Amino acid sequence: MSSTSSSPSSCSLASTCSSNDSQIPERYCSSYIPTPSCALHEDLQPKIIQLFQNTWPGTKTAHIRIKKFWPTGGHNRIIRINVKAKTKAKSPRQDTADGVVEHTSGMSGIDITGVQEDKLAPGRYMLRFPYHDKHCWMEYEVAIISFLNTHFPLAPVPKIVNHSLTSENELGLRYMIQTRLPGSTVQDVYRTLNTTQKITFAWDFGCVLKELGSKSWPCSGDLNPNSDVNDPSFLPPDIPSIKPRCSKGELSKIQQPQKPQTTLQYILSTFERQYSRTNESACSPFHASRFPKIATALAELGLLNDEGNYIVHHSLHERNILVDITSSTTARVGGIIDWDSSSFQPAFMQCRPPQWLWGHPFPRSCRDERIRYTQPDAKDKQSIRNAFVWAVGERWMRLAYTPEYRIARVVLLKGINGFEEGECGCQWAKNTLEKWNAMRPEYAVETGCCEKDGKESCFRQYC
């Protein structure tokens, strides 16, 4: 079984992102292997069969049945795998996996039978390999899933049973085989649930979020994929090796781990990186110099006193949350997937209200700030929201709904991801500054202006 290399380390001084690709450490770019396009999917079938025979030794080619091979996914090809024991019939759960109840959104499936009981256990698995390595950092996902399994063993996240981060394997590609979690995505089935099922699911989802917020770490940023969370010398200090959080395209250019910082220091450092690289946009440097003033004001107001950093799933959307329907009155969180965009962030970044639980149709309208923070009027929706509130706790709700924290999420996201270029991004930034000034006039900042006014319809506040 392949695995990531380990290099336990404590947090130390972080370096600024370099724009010179020649300075990228070899360990971060040596495994960037080009992935064939979907047109070559037929050539991969015999390689996949060989991989499975080596993973489950003794399995004959005739026992591997590819029902459909057209892998789908955002950045990864995803193939469902149903592994059945040599002498046992399908279990009810495997019947569900074959599509009797579960919605699979067109994912391909492979059945493997005749597996010996003393080998890797029969069950439900998933094969993942990236379309293009430029936009998919498998090393990081392997590291973060291992981290979650270690520190949050009760959290509904997959487990990795096999992976390879080089092309030196049966596929000739980087890949990961992980356990397949029960259920279907929220966007596929949530509308079909009855009120009682939605209430039980909202309660369970609130419990999951509260669990993920139960542990904090002194460093903010991305987990270093070279950290070994299972190394005894690494675990006692409980300080993972973390790299500064940068925007896309910069993650591989960090050469030193992050250091412990106050929340204010961390926010300001993200804008220092943005300000140093946004000269091509007429409005970005201006706004990148104004948003830190909001962060400073938040600190003066005592709203950044929690210096801990928590694991934050930046794509906790309906497509990445699984609903496991266990009865006509009960549904639970079957799993949370696609952790490759997660990082360690201040507590308020964890707390974005899941309006889709009780509110408006998703996906777009529930991301609009004006809708996200409205209260449901129907009694059944109020019951769903109440179940979530009771489970997640007062602290989470305070961080979610305090108006200043709503602005704080916007500010930090802009520090991490940067500003959109053009009149739309410029008007969006100006709009955010004006909302802050109306909220806290004693800490008002200059809003500036753009050459042209952008249209309100072309921006939303993702806070």
Automatic annotation (TrEMBL):
Cross-referenced InterPro entries: AGP_Transferase (IPR051678), Aminoglycoside_PTrfase (IPR002575), Kinase-like_dom_sf (IPR011009)
Region called Disordered, residue ranges: 1-23
Aminoglycoside phosphotransferase domain span: 123-373
Residue ranges with Low complexity bias: 1-22
Pfam families assigned: APH
Name of protein: Aminoglycoside phosphotransferase domain-containing protein
